[in-house]
Design goal:
heterodimer; A: alpha/beta; Rossmann fold; eight-stranded mixed β-sheet; B: alpha/beta; four-stranded antiparallel β-sheet; 10 helices; globular
């Protein structure tokens, strides 16, 4: 494994402060905080695809926004290509954005319905200072072909495209500045399975052609398994497990990962199996309890889990897990 | 399980279109579907394939216009649903056919407590038990209509219902409360006494969907239609709701028509699976048959494009092109433009349904006897 680290987050924390209620204002109590991202440290190497899996409320999208510097973290630092970029602002930040781009989840709301495709896709170029329309058009047409859209799409509006087509426009907009890294925030969750397959293939082709680095955020485990080299599992703002995709998918060491993987419905009625069901709902992120965040739903919970928060511990092959009792799940492949 | 030989549901040659300014959108084309009692039938298809239109047409929930049933028939326990007068339709909803929708937050009223919403369904059932259904000649209860006349069968005092001096049915609140609690516990809600005092926004998505299931169950329907019931839920919650539904199928022996875009979800729950494409039911059969030996090229490519493996396992097979425009469907098989094995004959006419045995039906020329 080469040690060409491109992106690193160190102890990233993001708390959102809730508005105080009247009683809280009168009693001068401290405002409640949503712990969206809590002490997340992840490392992505150049040319690597990291999949970030989590259910709703796990903080995966918040982390993606922080990674693309669309959201300022409460604390923690972001190291990009060996340089601390946490404090960037103004012109420096604008130049840094050439390196990291983002594709949003919903291709309907993230594209301006009043603009033609060439304006949407060319906007990053304009922001970067390109003024001549001919130059913009040329690059827009080129990148549209790269994402698999016909050249004549430049004069169309987003509503004239299907869901898959719109997601391609979003992707073209992210690619036009020739970034090194793209944050993909649920790029396929609004798509049908056949269209999803097309987009996933295109993403992998682009990644190989341009040696791109992806942070692929999704709740779709099949898609993440297919596209990623490494995988991180988030739950309630914490990273539970990180490792090579095969290690995590075949030998998960965290009970949550195991439960998550076994919850995925498989299109094979013969394999309808006894489900490893986890009880309960995803708790709220407001003032989380001490100890392991998963303790309330974990089938293997012990007293220690409720008091002491587990830290990420290393196992073989860069596989790290935040569980006191991960050894007990070791050597047990799923299925 | 057929009692007196009448199937629970029989859809024959159903055609539905939406009349829009840009032409008629043919959402459902010549669909035949039969369901027996106690059966779980799954319908899968991509966005816009007409699966929800089909689901909504059975309890007559389609907005007409713009929707229009152009031809065919829907028989629920032998009753021709399409020829019913609008006034008669509600009689079949709820206790006959119950629906569970995709977004429980849109199906629950935000300004009423859970108790009031679940109890409404129970009241309807009780009123029907108290004589509504027995005399089918009587008009169904309509809340907008004046109070029923004195001789109306609803006036009969039964063990569980009484009437006040205005002629309204009075329910025993304690008894209703006990029933609500019973149905909420049936969908594995812990502490139902507390939950029923809450408003929908105070519950999570999984809880709300359980409430919807409890409401559908409380009417003891003979057919439940679930339109993407787990699509808005997280995967661990989806697994909980699915296994709950599986348990309930065993407990209450209801029949479910389960609509989903997710092949995995349908494989989990259905006895039989139908695959829809551009308004046509292209393949239907036992779940094991459809998944292990799919015979329609569309089913095959749908199953192949499901991401099973890793990047190193090679490219995901994809379908070329896009779903055809439903206002201008091509002649012949609607899938031929994207089909790898399209032949000349595919452009001439829609292929007939071919029976491959054991209830496995497929509409594709490739499966004709003697074809390659």
């Amino acid at each position: 494994m080469d040690d060409d680290v491109l992106f690193q987050s160190r102890h990233m924390v993001k708390h959102f402060t809730l508005q105080k209620s009247i009683t809280e204002t009168i009693s001068r109590s401290r405002p409640k905080k949503v712990h969206a991202v809590d002490d997340v440290s992840l490392t992505i190497h150049r040319g690597e695809v990291m999949g970030l899996i989590g259910e709703s409320g796990s903080g995966k999208t918040t982390f993606g926004w922080i990674a693309a510097k669309l959201l300022a973290p409460t604390s923690g630092s972001l190291i990009y290509d060996g340089i601390d970029v946490s404090g960037l602002s103004g012109e420096e930040l604008r130049r840094w954005r050439h390196h990291v781009q983002i594709v949003f989840q919903d291709p309907i709301t993230s594209l301006n319905p009043r603009l033609k495709v060439w304006r949407i896709v060319g906007e990053p170029l304009m922001a970067a200072g390109v003024r001549e329309k001919a130059a913009i058009m040329e690059r827009v047409e080129k990148v549209l072909i790269d994402v698999g859209l016909p050249e004549r799409s430049v004069e169309l509006y987003p509503h004239e495209f299907s869901g898959g087509g719109r997601q391609r426009i979003s992707l073209a907009r992210a690619l036009i500045l020739d970034p090194e890294m793209i944050v993909l925030d649920e790029p396929t969750s609004a798509l049908d399975v056949a269209v999803q397959a097309q987009i996933l293939n295109r993403l992998i082709d682009l990644q190989k052609e341009r040696n791109l680095t992806y942070l692929f955020i999704s709740h779709n485990i099949g898609a993440v398994r297919y596209i990623s080299d490494t995988v991180a599992i988030m739950y309630l703002g914490k990273v539970m497990e990180v490792g090579k995709v095969r290690d995590v998918m075949e030998k998960p060491l965290h009970p949550y990962t195991r439960a998550l993987l076994l919850s995925v419905p498989v299109p094979d009625p013969v394999r309808r199996k006894f489900r490893f069901r986890i009880k309960g709902e995803i708790p709220t992120l407001v003032s989380p309890p001490p100890g392991c965040r998963f303790a309330g739903r974990c089938p293997f919970v012990r007293d220690r889990c409720r008091t002491e928060e587990p830290v990420l511990r290393g196992f073989v092959n860069g596989h790290t897990v935040a569980c006191h009792f991960a050894e007990e799940l070791e050597d047990k492949a799923i299925n | 399980m057929t009692s007196n030989g009448i199937p629970l549901l029989s859809v024959r040659d159903l055609q539905i279109c939406y009349n829009t300014p840009s032409g008629a959108v043919r959402a459902v084309n010549h669909i035949n579907l039969d369901m027996e009692r106690g059966e779980v039938v799954g319908i899968v298809g991509e966005t816009g394939c007409g699966k929800s239109t089909l689901a909504h047409s059975i309890p007559r929930l389609l907005p007409e216009p713009p929707a229009q049933v152009v031809g065919g028939e829907i028989r629920f326990e032998g009753t021709d649903m399409l020829s019913l007068r609008n006034k008669e339709v509600p009689k079949y909803r709820g206790t006959g056919i119950a629906m569970i929708f995709q977004e429980p937050i849109n199906s629950l009223n935000p300004s009423f407590r859970i108790f009031d919403q679940v109890v409404e369904a129970i009241k309807v059932r009780k009123m029907r038990e108290a004589g509504m259904e027995a005399t089918s000649a009587a008009e169904p209860h309509d809340y907008n209509e004046p109070k029923p006349p004195v001789s109306h069968p609803l006036r009969e005092v039964t063990a569980t219902t009484r009437r006040n001096r205005f002629g309204d049915i009075e329910f025993d609140r304690k008894e209703l409360m006990a029933e609500v609690v019973e149905f909420l516990s049936m969908v594995r809600i812990n502490d139902p006494e507390h939950i029923l005092r809450l408003y929908p926004h105070e519950l999570s998505g999984g809880m709300r969907q359980r409430i919807m299931i409890a409401m559908a169950l409380s009417e003891q329907p003979r057919l439940m239609i679930a339109d993407e019931p787990t699509s808005a839920l997280d995967v661990t919650i989806q697994a909980q709701v699915l296994s709950l539904m599986k348990d309930l199928i065993e407990e209450v022996h209801t029949s479910i028509l389960f609509i989903s875009h997710d092949l995995g979800v349908v494989a989990e729950i259905a006895d039989r699976i139908g695959v829809m494409y551009a308004g046509n039911l292209v393949e239907i059969g036992k779940a094991a048959d459809v998944f292990s030996k799919p015979c329609h090229p569309y089913t095959q490519s749908l199953l192949r494009s499901f991401p099973h493996g890793y990047k190193t396992d090679g490219k995901l097979p994809t379908l070329k092109g896009a779903v055809p425009n439903l206002t201008r469907l091509p002649t012949g098989c609607p899938f031929r433009g994207r089909c790898e094995s399209a032949m000349d004959i595919c452009a001439t006419a829609m292929p007939d349904t071919i029976d491959l045995g054991d209830g496995h039906l497929v509409s594709c020329y490739l499966n004709r006897k003697g074809a390659a």
